[in-house]
UniProtKB/TrEMBL annotation:
Record's keyword annotation contains Transcription: yes
Keywords tagged on the record: DNA-binding, Phosphoprotein, Transcription, Transcription regulation
UniProt cross-references to Pfam families, sorted A to Z: HTH_18, Response_reg
Coiled coil (residue ranges): none
Protein name, as recorded: DNA-binding response regulator
Organism of origin: Paenibacillus cineris
Residue ranges of domain HTH araC/xylS-type in the record: 456-554
Modified residues (4-aspartylphosphate): 55
Limits of the Response regulatory domain: 3-120
Alphabetized InterPro entries for the sequence: CheY-like_superfamily, Homeodomain-like_sf, HTH_AraC, Sig_transdc_resp-reg_receiver, Tscrpt_reg_AraC-type_HTH
Keyword tRNA-binding: no
Lineage of the organism: Bacteria, Bacillati, Bacillota, Bacilli, Bacillales
Amino acid sequence: MNRLLIVDDEPIIVDGIYRLLQEEEELQLDLHRAYGGDEALEKLNAIRFDIVLSDIWMPGMTGLELQEHINERWPACKIIFLTGHPDFNYAQTAIRNQCMDYILKTESDETLLRSVRKAIELLQTERMNAGFLDKASEQFQLAVPALQREILQGFCEGTQPLKSLKPELLKSLSIPLTLDGKVMLVMGRVDRWPIQMTKAADKAHMMFAIHNIAKEYLSSCALQSVDVEHNRFFWLIQPKVLLEWGSTHAAAPEDEWSRTIRFVHGTLEMIQSTSLELLKIPLSLAAAKEGVEWREIPARYQKLRAGLSRGLGIGQETILIEGQQSGDFSVDESEIQKQTIRQLIRKWSGNDYVSEEEKQEMYKLLSLLSGMMDPFYEDVGFFLEIYYAIASHLLTQLNRWSVDHAALEEVEMDRVSHYQLHATRKDAFHYLIHAALRLIEARDDEKKEYTNQVVSRLNRYVDEHLDSDLSLTTLSDLVHLNPYYMSRLYKQMTGVNLPDYITDERIKKAKELVVESHLKMHEICKKVGFESPAYFTRIFKKKTGSTPQEFREKHQPTRFK
């Protein structure tokens, strides 16, 4: 829907054009009026207009002066000038300032409508071709590293299933790996940042430099780097031959993998020393001893991460190869499970559950946590870590969302804050999960209630002001929402377009007045907010099958006849 402003110092012209455009329902215009340039400027300063129909010569601010303000504030707005004087100089100035059309007031209504339709078509074309796709592509490219990180880190940490990795997804995100065959994992850590390097942007730049060094030395391999935290990262590596062969080979020959593994292991020291020499950044690296199937990567990820965290000696500038150090990176399955639970907690606490899809995902995640914690209730330290991570976030969200505590009356916050109030740790954790689920439901209930209140307020206002201005802009000010968002929200909640509801209510009231009063038709027309009797008659007949007079004659009680 486009917003159109009619500007002229002669009210009869403004109102006449308003009625003409109002009858052209297929144009889907949100119509506004201004009886002079100054009033028009006030409206233009308040809201955006897509099309302006303006007289050129007006007392006070002229149409050409108004055009300058429009071009400065709303450059995409299409301006159609109306004039009673075929002055070439005016036309020349208007066109030079990017006026879309120039119409004499003596021309036909069809000429005006044709110009408005042309403006609408031009707006639609520009919105499609104004570089939006190019800009979207540019923005997507800027977002690629974050998307790569979200997908691959989520997979490695167990919060994204393997099935979420699809060949077309890897291709769209420029990830130079194939899901056909094995993959090798290397974990890395910046042991110490230079003292002067305190800004996050500088550290991110250095991380990028570290990855470039790795890609340079491992140029014979396909490598994808992912930053995990401010000082940690990992690389996923495959022989390039896998990509060159494509999907016709399930795996590279074992001798090719053996060469790749030896090459990567032998090159880690060079990557480490170059980083220290050129960037003054010491690194520690931990590499898998072999390539593994993709489904094995999450478990291998946790083992390498734990091995790197444990370290050897002074714990800095180490290079660890799985299977070559004491302890063999041994991490039992329970430790891997703990890491997965921690990752799930981080994912839950970083989500606001705005969409229905996100909400359902959180339901599944919290239910999954209930089962995953079963082996760890006797591990007091880990239980307390997870319990209070959830409880703390829960209380933060409760305060941040300002959820009505009455909506959570079945949840006792003392029993959330103090696990000792429950018979067992398992009971305490299940109660905590129940509270988290109820919070999500309560927030959703409040959101729905607020939305219903908005719809009810709109309906009530429409019913009480049928004879007034009921434009989308007026109604949006009432509920403090953007007009277009308000319109979509109303349609989503009721299944009816808001303008259609307004028209239906006006016709409903008009039918009552036609049958139950002695008012003349032009008086009824005014009472129900129609701009002209002709337009009122046309819409009335469209909705009822009869003109207002025919409807009165058919339905009015005998005493009124």
